[in-house]
Amino acid sequence: MLTRRIIPCLDVKAGRVVKGVSFLNHRDAGDPVALAAAYDAAGADELVFYDITASSDERAIMVEVVERTAAQVFIPLTVGGGLRTVDDMYRMLRAGADKVSLNTAAVLTPQLIEEGAKRFGSQCVVLSVDVRRVSAPGAAPRWAVFTHTGANPRPTGLDAIEWIRRGVALGAGEICINSMDADGQKRGYDIELLRAVSAAVPVPVIASGGAGSPEDMYCGLADGLADAVLAASIFHFGEYTVEQVKGYLRGRGVPMRVA
Fold this sequence. Notes:
12 strands
């Protein structure tokens, strides 16, 4: 049986890790290099590094910070934010990333997914999707895709499930699905969203947005059918450790990698 993955997320702004609620009101959480090293030592299965203002600021990702972060970890590192070309992707892989995450650029230029998968392999390309529930109460659930998330998220007109299917058809090897409604709320993942995405595509799905406890992570894996769970607040601010979460999940029968 495949082991499930615990993935701390480093949202980086101006060289510091931050965490907010629904992408706003960010709190400082520390130095990305120090946090990366700590999570590696703590037994995290992977790390995600997002330069969260690169797209909205219309600038390139901070290569130097990525290089220093990658030098501290021996687990897979995914890097995203401000990647607009295949050369940008290559630069991140050269800097030490194992995977690159595409979000805004993939929506604007879908063929970037295909070009990246052809050059580096689908296993290197993660499609990250920020979504908001738009269905009326009592109606069948539906989610819309947004880009440039933060104070002024931009609607794309894309249906989340349709866009994710298209991204996988173009070559994305993994999906990171983030609920904008649940982000930072610590009330649990959007289970209906996770189940819909997991049923729609044959590639691994990472749950993002809403983790507040080990129970939430269990529900994301067991009920949402996710392959991995991503979290930030509960780890950065010391509410739980990676070891505590893994111990809880093992106790409930979820296969986990032993650090």
